[in-house]
Structures are given as C-alpha cells and as structure tokens.
Amino acid sequence: MALTEFSARTNGGPNPFDMHLDENSFLERVRAFVADEVLPKTREWESNRAFPDSIWPRLGELGILAMTLPREKGGLGLTCTTYCDTIREIAKGDPALAMNVAAINALCVAHFDRFATQEQCDKYLPGIIKGEIKLAWGLTEPDAGSDARRVKTKATPIEERPGYYKINGRKMFITNAGKADLIVLIARTSDTELTAFLVETDQLGFTNVERIHTVGVSASWTTSFDLKDAVGWHTPCKFEDAIGLLYRGRLAIAGMALGIAEKAHELTVEYSKQREQFNRRLCDMQSVQNMIADSEMEITAARLLLHHGTTLFDEGKPVIKESSMAKLYASETSNRVTNRAIQIHGGRGMTPEYLVEKLWRDAKLTEIGEGCSEIQRMVIAKQVTR
C-alpha cells in the first residue's frame, strides 16, 4: 500500500488508546503480551531471521509503537521510566524485537514529535501509530559509525519542490531497514551542515543492497541500502538536535541490556537449583554462588543507574552523562551475566536447547548499538572534565 493512502486517517480524532490505562496497567499488559506472544516465538523468529509481518499491527494495537508520542498527537505519552521498563520487559522475551521497538520510539517517533511539520505528521503518524507504516532510522554509513559527522550521504534541494531534496549515498547496519516503509535519514546539505529527511522506500531511488546477518538479534532485518536521486522530505532540525534523541535512546538500550541480563539470571538461578553434581545442587557450590552473587549485584546496580537516568529525563533535566553511564554499565553487565549463565549451564549452555546461549549472543549488540562502550566512556569523561 502506498504511504499516501495513510494520510489523515485518524489525525485530529480521538486518541485510539485507553485513556484510563495507567502506566502500571500498561506494563502488566506488556508482560502478558511478552509471555503469551513473544517468548514462545523467539526461537522461531531467530530461525526465520525475521519477525512475522503481523507483529507490527499487533504492536500498534497495544500502543507500543506510540509510547513516546504525546497524547495530543495520538500517542500514549508515557514517562521515560515506563518506556524503558517496557523495552526491558520485551527484551526478556525477544531482544531483537526490543531493539526495534526502542529505535522506532526513541529515534523515529520522537523525531516526528520534535521536528516534523504538521503536514508530515498528518501524512504519516496515523499509519505509524497503527503499525501500518514500518520505520527505521538511518545514520550509519560504511565510513561513518561512531564518528557520525563523517556522513557522506548528500542532499541537494529540488528547486521546483520546496522542502524536498534529492539524496545520494549509502547507509549500512540500519535496523529494520529491510522491512521499513519510511526511513528517518541523516544526510549532508553542505560541507558543514547535516540534517534529517523522511525517505519512502517504495521509490526507484531507494535500493536495499544486502541483508546483513548478525550472530545475535538475528530476527531484526538489518540492511545496507543505496540512495540514487531518492526523494527526501526535509524535517527542519539541526544535526545536533537530531542526534540529541540518542540520549533517551541510550536509556532504552540500557533497558534492553537489563532485560537480557535479568532473563539470563532468572534462568540460571533456576537451573542451578535443579542441576546436581557430586551429590550437590550447583547453587550449593561456592564457585557457583559467587557467580550468582556477582550477577545479582551488577543487575541491581544497572537497574539503579537506569532508574536514575530515566527519572532525571522525566524531570526535564539533562541526561547526557547519565544515559551513557546507564547504557555502558547495563550493556557490559548483560555480557558478563550471560557469560556466567553459559558457564553455570556448562556444555548444555552452548546448545539451542537452553535460551541462555541466545541471550549471550543477543547481549553483545547492546555494547555496540547507539554508541559503543568506548564512545560512552568518552562522553562520560567529557561531561566530568568540562
């Protein structure tokens, strides 16, 4: 279906979600959805290397695609704390889905909220909220990753169409790009200026080049794509403002990492109570107890760092340092906890019979996506020493 067919379906009408649903009730509904519809399917989705197309309207029905959108624009208007807790809960069922939901909310939908014109919102938001328009956020390029200002994709104004540009370049490692109908894309308008555009993927100038398969979060349809005179609709914003959306995004990735760690820890504690060696349960062995204790302590610390960051965000305070600390610590905790989970499960932990091996692979992404650990340390140090 062409994106123009989504225009003004619900814009200006009543909020389609339950206005009386409080945030605790919303989280309970998310937990039920994860338990019934996500966790039982996570291996199937990984095997298929894709989510079913039906997942997007289902997420829309639950309001999960509009968590960060204010109520007056048709969203749920949730606090950052509840948004990140939602990502955390989804990650316990399927980290790849959590990653996609995090990116759609914190980067794409938030971009519409902050920077899109009313005309752009009227055209796209109704379909986005319902899950009929699938989204991606396009920054990374072959030569531009951590160094975002190295973006080479170029945007040139179309003289006869004010606000529209011809866009040329290549993007890669773009989450959900292979399924997206619309991409919020960063491109260069001059040697010094970068800004953002809305690019529809069903045009001749847009070509998905290849699917990028990864060892973890495999169900996410990550691709590289080419833009050859593709038409982009400018969203009025400065590069620094668009990149500023990453701060809430990093808190969400911290939530994803925390959810992975919590699930792996839960499975490992249960396994250690059931598995016996040398006529003793694993959980009665000091070496195993040490690992369980370390994981419990680090998960608790990561949870507190995340809550501190989301609380500051909800209070309208800067979270540049706090979001990096939460993301850095939670992601590294997730990798340590899942590694311990494998160790405690022994050889069984290396087999697909046990979910900990998948969580172990999925956890690695959290140390890389939305700013690798080295970048987070640099951000933290600059904030401390400025």
TrEMBL record:
Keyword annotations of the record: FAD, Flavoprotein, Oxidoreductase
InterPro entries found in the cross-reference section: Acyl-CoA_DH_CS (IPR006089), Acyl-CoA_Oxase/DH_mid-dom (IPR006091), Acyl-CoA_Oxase/DH_mid-dom_sf (IPR046373), AcylCo_DH-like_C (IPR036250), AcylCo_DH/oxidase_C (IPR009075), AcylCoA_DH/ox_N (IPR013786), AcylCoA_DH/ox_N_sf (IPR037069), AcylCoA_DH/oxidase_NM_dom_sf (IPR009100)
Cofactor(s) named in the record: FAD
Limits of the Acyl-CoA oxidase/dehydrogenase middle domain: 137-229
GO molecular function: acyl-CoA dehydrogenase activity; flavin adenine dinucleotide binding
Domain Acyl-CoA dehydrogenase/oxidase C-terminal: 241-384
Residue ranges constituting the Acyl-CoA dehydrogenase/oxidase N-terminal domain according to the UniProt record: 23-132
Highest rank taxon of the organism: Bacteria
Pfam family, one: Acyl-CoA_dh_1
Entry keyword Oxidoreductase: yes
Family according to the record: Belongs to the acyl-CoA dehydrogenase family.
PANTHER family: ACYL-COA DEHYDROGENASE, ISOVALERYL-COA DEHYDROGENASE, MITOCHONDRIAL-RELATED
Name this polypeptide is given: Acyl-CoA dehydrogenase
Originating organism: Fimbriimonas ginsengisoli Gsoil 348
